[in-house]
Amino acid sequence: MSLQRRRRLRTPLVVALLLGFLLSGCADDTEAGRLAMPEPASVQGERTLDLWQGAWIAALVTGVIVWGLIFYAVVKFRRRSDDEIPIQTRYNLPLEIFYTLAPVVMVIVFFNHTVKVQNDVLRDIPPDNIIEVTGQQWQWTFNYGLGEMDESADDDRYDDVYAYDEYAYEVGTGSYIPELWLPVDETTRFNLYSPDVIHNFGIPSFLMRMDVIPGRVNHYSITPSREGVFRGACYELCGVYHSRMLFEVHVVSREEYDAHVDELAEAGRTSEMPLLGSDEAYTQQGLGDLAEGEGPGRGQEGDDSE
Ligand SMILES: [Cu+2]
Questions:
Q1: Is there a single domain that holds both residue 103 and residue 182?
Q2: Could you check whether the bond before residue 56 is cis, i.e. omega within 30 degrees of 0?
Q3: Which domain holds residue 184?
Q4: Does residue 151 sit in the same domain as residue 170?
Q5: Is 45 a domain residue?
Q6: What are the tens digits of pLDDT across the range 7-47?
Q7: Ion ligand 1 — residues with CB under 5 Å?
C-alpha cells in the first residue's frame, strides 16, 4: 500500500473510532457510559446525568469536527517547497459571520439546557419530610422531625417556627462520622444552616450539593430512588479539619426510617428546636447565642479535634 493511500485511510478510521466511542458510550450502566459520573440514586440526579452526558456528546462532536478541519488544513495546505508562498486571502465574509455566530448559538443552547435542568432539580415540590441540617466546623448535625409535619411552618426559614414540634438529632464529631437516614421514594427537603463559615452539603450519588452559608438558609429537596449506603461530605474548604466533615447516607424503607428516628428519640437525643450549632455544638445552645453576641459560633478549636 502506498504511503499516501495509507494516510488517506487513516483519517476516516480515527473519526469512525471516535464516533463509535461516543455512540456506544451513552449507556448509563457503566462508569465510562456515564462519563465518570456516579450512578444516580435520586430522581433529581437522573436529570443532572442527562445534562452531563448531553453536554459531553455535543462538545465531543464539535471537537471531532474542529480537529478534523485542523488536520485537513495542516495536510492539505502544507508547504511543499521552500520557495512556495500560499495564496494570500484577506478575508472571507461568510466564513467570518459563520464562525462568530456558531459559537454564540452553541452557548445559547448549552445555557438553555443548563437553566432548564437547574430549575427542575431545584424546584420546590411539597416535601414528605423536612430535615434541618447544620454544618459547623467540623462536622454535621441532622435534625429529624418527630410527629406530624406542618409544611406551612417552613415557609419562612428565617423565623423560629419549624415544621415539627419536636426533633431527634444526630451529631457528628471529629472522631465520629454521623449517619443521615432517608426514606426511599419520598421527597426530603434539607434546610441548611451554618453558624460559622461556608460549608457545602453534598452527596455524590444524588448528584447534588449546595453551599451552607452563615446568615442564610439554603435548601434543596431530594427524592432517593434506591436503597443503599452512600457517602456524603463537605465540599467547601472550611478550615483545618474540613476533611473530617464526612457523613454516611442510609436510604431505607419508611418503616426502617421511622424505627431509626424513634431509636434516636429513645436514646434521649431530642429537643424542642432543631440544633443549629453554636459554641457548644455538642450540648447545643442554638443560634440564639450568636444573636446575643456571646460567641464567635465556632467549635472549640483543638479541644475536640486532637
Ligand atoms: Cu465544611
A1: no
A2: no
A3: 129-291
A4: yes
A5: yes
A6: 555 555 555 555 555 555 556 778 888 888 888 999 999 99
A7: 199, 234, 238, 245
pLDDT in tens, 192-221: 999 889 999 999 999 999 999 998 999 999
| Cα 200 to middle of ligand 1, angstroms | 6
For residues 107 and 195, state if they share a domain.
Answer: no
The CA 204 to ligand 1 mean position distance, Å, reads: 15
Q: Could you tell me the distance, in angstroms and rounded to a whole number, from the CA of residue 256 to the centre of ligand 1?
A: 29
Q: What pTM does this model have?
A: 0.77
Query: Separation of 233 CA from ligand 1 center, angstroms?
Result: 8
Q: How many CB atoms lie within 10 A of CB 4?
A: 8
**Angstrom distance (rounded) from CA 278 to CA 285:** 6
Same domain as 259, residue 176: yes
* Residue 154 neighbours by CB distance under 10 Å: 20
Looking at the structure, do residues 278 and 135 belong to the same domain, yes or no? yes
- Whether residues 267 and 138 fall in one domain: yes
Residue 237 identity: L
- What's the pLDDT band for 157 if we cut at 50, 70, 90? confident
The DSSP bridge pattern shows strands 188-193 and 129-136 to be parallel
Asked, for residue 140, whether it belongs to a domain, the answer is: yes
- 74 and 141 part of one domain: no
